[in-house]
Amino acid sequence: MANTLIRPVEIFYSYAHTDERLCNRLEQHLSSLRREGLVIHWHDRQIVAGMDWEHTIDTHLNSASVILLLVSPDFMNSEYCYGIEMQRAMERHRSRGALVIPIILRPVDWQHAPFARLQALPTGGRPVTKWTNRDDAFLDVANGIRRAVEDLTARAPSLSAPSDISRLPGKPISYFTSLEDYLKDLAKQQTRHRFPVESDFAQNLVYLPETYSSRMQTLLREKRRVLLVGASAMGKTVLAVALGKYLRDEEQYSVAYKNVARVKDGEGAEGVLWYELALAHDRPGTLYILDNCHLAREAVNEFCFQWESRAPEHAQCILISRPGAEESETGFETMRDYFELCGGETIEVSAHDIYRGVLERYAALYQQQDPTRYVALADDSAAVLERQHAQNLVISKSRLGAWRDLGGRLSRVKEEGIYQALKDKYLSISKVALPLLCALRQYEIPVHNLFVETKLPQEEVRLLEQEKLLTSATVPHHGVLYDLHLHPAEAREIFKAHVYRQYGQVTAKQLSQSIADALRAYLSARPSNYLAVYQALYVDSWHQKQRDLLEQFLRDRELQEYA
Fold it and tell me: CA-CA distance, 123 to 140, in Å (whole number)?
């Protein structure tokens, strides 16, 4: 690969001025990398008179791909080096924005510092000044930095590399969708609540746990493929897309996505085409994502067989699948084939941490937008329950739209993962806390449909009708109350989760009984608050009908004392 096509790696030096001479020696030993056009150096000696030195340092600290921490007693003692530059460097390292390399210049107690877990230079962390010949020490450091730079350079595609990795050369057919187009298409679909779109990334609402990110990147680097396995709605696709977008944005990857569920049974040859595509674009910085592999077992098996016989040198692949055992129950016994082939590259995905992280980000976003209305996730349960207009909105904004198919098909992750996260944070004050939480928003009355239709834009009303959220064949009292007319789907799903938890299924009988239980629990605790909300709705001309419906429901459910 010609040097002219390589984007130089910026190296930032963080050092104490007492160590300036040692810093100069290190820079001299890295001059070969600079002359080859592989790196550009930056340190504060390059600041000239009249420049805002603090802003300039921050700019380069935030843009450098490699940050060298020149560790010594003076470095550890410096408030600026240790307290500012090192802390920011570690933040960027944890977010995969930069590679941090500690260089041990002089003996000092650094083994308990935040960077102690990183691979230090010289080899073994032996201080430079302890070497008999310091040039030998700096040569060891330079060799280590060269390896890191060459690894970064190899993973970044050449500037002249073609961007369309979805087609075979000379062929008009696209076998994959670019990540950019995939995210754009998602934004137009009704399933957008399940998967992240560009705006979610822009608002920092997509959560990529460090444990998964690190393991996936390690396997992609070393094995060039990863198999993500988990039950439905575990967050497997979210993980793959989030990592793909990070690699695209931060390391200039070309990323392509394919939902293989559309491949018909018996079309194993399709997998050969995917493999040929990976070979045709076999260069650093190429990533393919194959989703729903369990629905196209023959094609995926063929793809993995081809990959196993002759793996691409650079191209990488993430496969996403349900567990093999689960699929074998439906007759897909041969699914074990690609599970066996990818055995050493398999990661089992559990959703508790993923959904918990998403919940926290949504809560933070909506509290930031309107702190007087939305409650923070960190608030205690008692405070949450006292602010009746806040708690359910925060929860409903937390991607619980992924529960669209609750029915009788609630997976373990939905049952144990999201539900447990909600219960742990919000529902610890009493056994009836969930009914208390849901009752105000979940008491269902037919009039609610009219309320929604008069408050929402017609386009949103049509969408709710399409998703069957304004009609129901099994639930005679459909609707939710008051300000949750903004988010009726999510509110209903919270309540259905409670019903499923109680009875193991969601039917008209269980819904009706649970509504009565929730209303009884809520009225017992806060009857005045509940009635005040109803009074707020009486401004509409149909308030008398509303009152009659409420009173009739209370009588029917043996709640006459509240009627």
Answer: 7
Cross-strand partners of 227: 319, 346
**Going along 25-183, which residue ranges are E strands?**
39-42, 66-71, 99-104, 177-178
Same domain, 190 and 336: yes
Tally of structural domains, the chain: 3
Neighbours of 4 (CB within 10 A): 9
38 part of a folded domain: yes
> Pairing between strand 254-259 and 177-178?
antiparallel
Overall average pLDDT of the 137-159 stretch: 82
Closest CA relative to residue 241, chosen from 224, 259, 218, 223: 259
CA count, 13 A, side-chain hemisphere, 293: 34
Q: Residues 8, 134: one domain?
A: yes
- The interaxial angle of helices 53-63 and 87-94, nearest 10 deg, is 30
Cβ-based burial of 269 (10 A; exposed 0-12, middle 13-18, buried ≥19) = exposed
Residue-number span of the structural domain to which 74 is assigned: 3-155
Band of the pLDDT at 344, cuts 50, 70, 90? confident
Same-domain pairing of 49 and 150? yes
Query: What was the pLDDT predicted at 398?
Result: 32
Q: Rounded to the nearest 5°, which phi and psi values hold at 7?
A: -80, 120
Q: Measuring CA to CA, which residue among 252, 267, 259, 266 is closest to residue 319?
A: 259
Under the banding of pLDDT at 50, 70 and 90, the label for residue 199 is confident
Helix-helix angle 269-280:297-309, to 10 degrees: 40
What is the C-alpha to C-alpha distance for residues 520 and 499, in angstroms, rounded to an integer?
Answer: 15
Q: How many CB atoms lie within 10 A of CB 394?
A: 24
CB 295 within 8 A of CB 264: no
The whole-angstrom separation of Cα 46 and Cα 44 is 5
The model's pTM: 0.45
Indicate if 450 and 334 belong to the same structural domain: no
Nearest to 345 by CA among 308, 312, 292, 310: 308
3-state class of 389 per DSSP?
A: coil
Domain-located, residue 337:
yes
For 563, the 3-state DSSP assignment is coil
For the beta carbon of residue 560, count every other beta carbon within 10 angstroms. 10
Both 120 and 195 in one domain: the answer is: no
Same domain for 324 and 196, yes or no, is: yes
